Amino acid sequence: MVAMHLNRTWGKIWGYQEGRTRSRARSVGSLFVFAIVACALCLIAVFYPTFIFASAFFICGMAAGLWLMRPGPAEAKAVSEATLHAKVFLTTADGATITDAEGNILAVNDAFTRLTGYGRAEVIGKNPSILSSGLHDDAFYNQMWGQIATGGYWEGEVYNRHKDGEVYAEWLRISKVPDPDGGAPNYIGIFSDITARKATEEHLYQRAYSDALTGAANRPYLNKYLDQEMPRVHRQASCLAVLFLDLDKFKPINDKHGHAAGDEVLRVIVDRIRGELRENDLVTRIGGDEFVVALSDSGSADGALQVASRILAMVSRPITWQGHEFHVCCSGGVAIYPDHADDRNALIAAADKAMYKAKARGGNYVALAERAPPQRKNSFA
User: Fold this and answer.
1) Could you tell me if 135 and 199 lie in one domain?
2) Do residue 69 and residue 151 come from a single domain?
3) Residue 29 pLDDT > 60
4) At residue 179, what are phi and psi to the nearest 5 degrees?
């Protein structure tokens, strides 16, 4: 069954038509019958010499016909290529499937069973959706099949589910194989497991853009975030707030209890800050005990100051470590784009300056930056 589907599909690709093979088989069969008749004529000629010349003429004609009806070089090459590519399909290291026009699986290779955990008998006749992870919505699949319908090909990253329930990432390529006789097409899917590669990419990304101690974003990522968000909020006539935080009473913890205690305090503080933020907001550690929080679409200065006040209240709660209770607080400065600055570095600097105003008031306080001079030109105009 698998071989039949493979030969038929590869025949479509390489121009080898099954109908031509059947026609030739019928012709050869007919010649085989003629050969039997010829043998009979030879036997008759032994007893009836007058038939010798007629029989010889018939046999020679039939032999010439057999020679002329042999498979031609082009057809033999097509058959050989179809067989070769069927072998490649079965033995390639990438998973591969062949489906009919309705999406029913007709054939899979050994790599498919290894990568998905499903045996051939478990998937033949089924739809590839049995592998679905549920992580892609209808819009994703509509776009995929729309592209296949118009262009005959699609490739991209897909998350599927192994038979044991584990989700894995794969790079999938789907090709539409038209029928040369105008019949229903087939589809060939080739995929490779890229889970390990994705894990490596994620690890490298985390090292490049996050703080190793606390898991907060680092300064390069903050710059990237602001460079993306500031033009967007400008186009939407919205605003973005930056909160610059500096811890108070932190140095004595390091001096008295060591860096292990100080590191734990920093991790707890980052977790508490995250708890007060929305999904699209960002917390960044830019120094030993300095943090920058970016609030996308903050709405107004008053809204940003309310978030900052909640953060200060959470930071000031006691932190327990190995039987010790630590009390820290922080000073904060808030700057709003575009009210207080028109570029990324100036915005952070304005928030930093406001933070020092808060510190000058004794700490555990948040101050608002001064409004930018009206003559400044917006860099995103």
Assistant:
1) yes
2) no
3) no
4) -85, 125
